[in-house]
Amino acid sequence: MADKDTDRVWDLMKKIPICMLTTWDGTNLHSRPMDARTRREQNAIYFLADVRHHADDEIAKYPKLNLSFSDSDAHNYVSLSGNAVVSNDRAKIKELWEPTAKAWWDTPDNPNIRVLKVTPIEAEYWDGPGKVVAMIKMLTAAATGSRPELGENRKVSM
User: What SS3 state is found at 99?
Assistant: First the structure.
């Protein structure tokens, strides 16, 4: 079952490319939407980040973070805890470069780009039945006084 659950976590993360990345600065939590590049074969989730936005400073001091993936239409969610490192690996930046990155930088040669690599520790996922089915199940549960069955929920060691 664990392999199936691990597979599902990776599948959901790949299908939900934008996630909230949450870091800790020693006093407060900070979340920001990020474009994830999942690489299961490397056991890593990568991000391109801008050195001017300070996530790299927080990660350098406190490398544990959380990634939250959400597809509310399908009622699919993943919360992943992991360890992160920041690098200025220019070859990796070019490898991870996608057209969406042009929203932030003109080219992968921009000196402000950094790579965030997150290595998963554990995850929890909620795999729902989709919006229409979930709504019907919630309405039925409300009418009958029961609790709706809204799909699978598992905790997974990564």
Answer: helix
pLDDT in tens, 75-121: 899 999 999 999 999 999 999 999 999 999 999 999 999 999 999 99
Q: Domain coordinates of the chain in residue numbers?
A: 2-157
Torsion of CA 132, 137, 142, 145, to 10 degrees: 180
Block residue for tokens 């990776």: 10
Tell me which CATH homologous superfamily contains domain 2-157.
Electron Transport, Fmn-binding Protein; Chain A (2.30.110.10)
Q: Measured between alpha carbons, how far is residue 104 from residues 32, 53, 87, 113 in Å?
A: 14, 12, 18, 9
Q: If we measure between CA atoms, which residue out of 88, 153, 83 comes closest to residue 120?
A: 83
What number of other Cβ atoms are within 10 A of residue 69's Cβ? 24
Find, among 45, 56, 43, 57, the residue nearest to 16 by Cα. Answer: 45
d(CA 11, CA 136): 26
Q: What is the mean pLDDT of residues 40-44?
A: 97
Whole-structure pTM value: 0.85
